[in-house]
Amino acid sequence: MSATDFPRPAALRPRPAMLAAPAGFLAELWKDKAAFAGFAFLILVVLVAIFAPVLAPHDPAAQSVLSRLTPPAWTERGSAAHLLGTDMLGRDVFSRLLHGARASLMVGVSVVLLAGSAGVALGLVAGYRGGRTDTVIMRVVDVFVAFPGLLLTLLLVAMIGPSTSTMIVVLAFSNWMIYTRLVRGIVLSMRATPFIEAAEVLGCGPGRILRLHILPNLIPPLLTLAILEFTNILLAEAALSFLGLGVQPPDTSWGLDIANGKNYMLIAWWPITFPGLAIAATVLSVNLFASWLRVTTDPAEREKRHARGRARALRRTSSENG
């Protein structure tokens, strides 16, 4: 038996790529404590949304006139059966908060996927083909950008009729041009790079160049943009549901719960406070994580951060020696 036949010690074996990548991601994220906290909260929200039917202690639509406007459990008149109290119809606020996360996240993710797919496809075509195709697509983008986004969304939803599916389609229809502009600008700058010109000289077709050479380089900026747009969609969903043009009863969302409790806010603060805090905390967490992601995926920003870190280390060393 040769020396190479002996099994390696566990500490010397290379870590599988699928395990090393998440570990490296978390190690890098841990350096920014605010971004790590935001990412952890987002994971918690996603898990709560997935397992809401199991975690919710009550049916979110179950009403009880005898239990209406019960304060949270830690207050003087609170009940242990309702941790965050009940609303004006006696529905458990905690259960509705958990189920509301499902609707809000579903709308946000669906709109980002639909708008992102359409916007990226049009941006790739406009940036790579150029000429009349680029002119037509960008003039359409200019027309859409000229309309106020929320006003256009309200108009379309009011014309079609309020529902969750209508809201998703209308929000995607009102936000695709953001991705188109970003992708077109990056593709235009990449077309003049040597590796794209070399691929064209070697006979690669437009589809292969877009798929294998340009699209992978778009992933970091698109990922950052999609995460930031998710917060805008989350706020738009809350606004539409608050106005009665979004999620419809008996379904629930955070924006709808705030709308239901606004008339009772002077005598019962809890039906609107906890959904509002959930929206604010989710938006803040997404922004913190997106800020870290933008710096991490941008080589220039990483160099600046590394330079600042080395400067702080040098100052610390000089002060200790000094």
UniProtKB/TrEMBL annotation:
Extract the InterPro entries matched here. Answer: BP-dependent_transpt_permease (IPR050366), MetI-like (IPR000515), MetI-like_sf (IPR035906), OppC_N (IPR025966)
* Any one GO CC term of the record: plasma membrane
Q: Where found in the cell? A: Cell membrane
Q: Which residues form the ABC transmembrane type-1 domain?
A: 101-290
Biological process annotations from GO: peptide transport; protein transport; transmembrane transport
**This protein's UniProt keywords:** Cell membrane, Membrane, Peptide transport, Protein transport, Transmembrane, Transmembrane helix, Transport
Mention any Pfam family matching this sequence: BPD_transp_1
Q: Indicate how the chain sits in the lipid bilayer.
A: Multi-pass membrane protein
Domain of life, source organism: Bacteria
Q: Membrane-spanning regions, if any?
A: 34-56, 105-128, 140-160, 166-183, 218-247, 267-295
Task: Identify the stretch annotated as signal peptide in this record.
Answer: none
Q: Indicate the family of this protein.
A: Belongs to the binding-protein-dependent transport system permease family.
Q: What is this protein called?
A: ABC transporter permease
What is the scientific name of the source organism? Mangrovicoccus algicola
